[in-house]
Amino acid sequence: MSKNAEPLLLSIIVPVYNEALSLEQVVEYLMASRCLIAREWIFVDDCSTDGSFEILQALSRRFSFRLLKHDQNEGKGAALRRGIAEAKGQFILVQDADFEYDPNDTPNVVQPLIDGRADVVYGSRFRQSSVTQVHRTYHYFINRFLTLLSNLFSGIYLTDMETCYKAFRSDLLQNMTLTSNRFGIEVELTAYLAKVRARIVEVPISYYPRTRLQGKKINWKDGFAALRHLVYFNWWVDFDAAYNTSRLPETYHPKFNEVKKPVIGSNDS
Fold it and tell me: Where do the H-state alpha helices sit in the chain?
């Protein structure tokens, strides 16, 4: 990095909805985790009804993170879209407000972005690592099935499309015209990546799934909705609708560096 280069900053967006039971411990765990570059934490409370926002208010004074609030419950996708719009870093990462994902995996997820080897990094729960995590059977098969369909529809081969840990260059992510309010945001993000010249990398991550009794919010209705989203975002939304094309860097455009064929009868030598 040159002396005049702007210091790298990672914006981490944490959507929160009714996580009061373990929220203080989760935030302390997140803040104590390691990272390779400076971080900007953005917590988005999606109109919690259990006191989560008040807990975050107190913690924000202690840890100096940014706190945003929705006046009505809109869903994870809406919270992420709000955080993405507010992010100031060159890179943006998504983090859930629970213990399912280990924030100490962040350096491995972000490293390809820092090195300039990728525009997007997916942290895969299904890629082999030194320890093999046991998954809940129902969610495992649903995730693998949706990832398979996503691969067929988008043409991008991934092992874990539904992963929370996705890291992006902000000049790509902030120019997506995202619309999903709930968990369809995962499908929408991947479908839109298939429409541009983005370098995508997968790295293995840890995963500690929680049960519905522990507060897991995704359900079978979201699985059926994902099927509709897979068709809609991959086949019905084109590049011009998926991106703010006037602001998206030219290198991401699908026809960048396309060799132009000479037009017969032209005056070009």
Answer: 23-32, 52-63, 76-86, 106-114, 137-154, 170-173, 185-193, 220-231, 239-242
CA distance 80 to 95: 10
In contact, 170 and 176? CB cutoff 8 Å: no
d(CA 184, CA 76): 9
Alpha-carbon distance 182 to 180, whole Å?
Answer: 6
CB 141: neighbour CB atoms within 10 A? 11
Q: Report helix, strand or coil for 237.
A: coil
What is the spatial distance between Cα 99 and Cα 109, in angstroms, rounded to a whole number? 17
Residue pLDDT, tens place only, 180-217: 999 899 999 999 999 999 999 999 999 987 554 444 45
